[in-house]
């Protein structure tokens, strides 16, 4: 169950990171509210996940999910570059996330 909570925490991390792009430096009230709400939910879920998972593994996976999701959505939503090296680096992060899951006995 901790892995599902951690994945959900990572999805909320993506939400708050993308929210930063829409909040214009936290100056727009509605996007700022959504960003802060997603941040709080993400942190609470991460805290729950580390009750059962090693903090180093959980944090690395949480940030990895956030990095992959945010970089991917940055390409789709904010016209960030989608170069081959960038896509390859995102892929390396995915491999790292999967590797941490597999090697931590989190099946």
UniProtKB/TrEMBL annotation:
Give any GO molecular function from the UniProt entry.
transmembrane transporter activity
Q: Please give the GO cellular component terms listed in this UniProt entry.
A: plasma membrane
Alphabetically ordered keywords of this record: Cell membrane, Membrane, Transmembrane, Transmembrane helix, Transport
User: Membrane-spanning residues where?
Assistant: 33-50, 57-78, 84-103
Q: Where in the cell is it found?
A: Cell membrane
Describe its membrane topology: Multi-pass membrane protein
> Source organism's superkingdom?
Archaea
InterPro entries recorded: EmrE-like, Small_drug/metabolite_transptr, Small_multidrug_res
Q: What is this protein called?
A: Multidrug efflux SMR transporter
Which source organism does the UniProt entry give? Halorarum halophilum
